[in-house]
Amino acid sequence: MITDPTLMNLFFVNLDGVRVLGIDDEVTIPEVHIELERLVAGCPTCGVVARVQGRSPVRLIDLSMAGRRIALVWNKRRFICLEPACEKITWTEVDHRIATPRFALTDRAGRWATFQVGAQGRPVCDVAEELGCWLFR
User: Fold this and answer.
1) Three-state SS at 72
2) 9, 57, 62, 63 from 16: Cα distances, Å
3) Facing residues of 57 across strands?
4) Domain range holding 33?
5) Are 81 and 45 in contact (CB under 8 A)?
6) Distance of alpha carbon 125 from alpha carbon 49, whole angstroms
7) pLDDT digit string (tens) for 62-89?
């Protein structure tokens, strides 16, 4: 069993600055839990160093691994701007390498699905079935 976070990142995520927190395989679809390693974030509007207000787990459909469907659970931090005059009050972290905001697929699953439908001519419903999209409703 792999327990080293660096090796888990290499096998399951393979992105710099992303930490694998653990893998839950006691659910219907195994979940790889991740977070960004960045400790400090600035307000996207005014640049003042923000404070973490909480975390929101976001469950994403990822590519299958070894014939098993996989979900990626990104524990996104919610930040609050400490500048009283700033219009931006709160926001959640964004990393387009993982997923686009409000999308149900990881970036790599979306690229794979797009290739399957566009270049390979596969029906969208077949690709969605293979990824297990119906399980995430």
Assistant:
1) strand
2) 9, 20, 18, 19
3) 75
4) 5-136
5) yes
6) 44
7) 988 878 888 999 999 999 999 999 999 9
Domains identified in the chain, total number: 1
Under 8 Å between Cβ of 9 and 18: yes
Q: For 116-132, what is the mean pLDDT?
A: 92
Residue 36 phi/psi, 5-degree rounding, is -80, 145
Residue 16 pLDDT grade (very low, low, confident, very high; cuts 50, 70, 90): confident
Burial zone of 88 (CB within 10 Å; 0-12 exposed, 13-18 middle, 19+ buried): middle
The total number of residues shown for the chain amounts to 137
Q: What does the pLDDT look like over 29-59, one tens digit per residue?
A: 889 999 999 878 899 999 999 999 999 999 9
pTM of the model: 0.83
Structure token pair of residue 74: 């990104």
| Distance separating alpha carbons of residues 10 and 99, to the nearest angstrom | 18
The HSE-up count of residue 72 (CA atoms within 13 Å, CB side) is 31
pLDDT at 136: 61
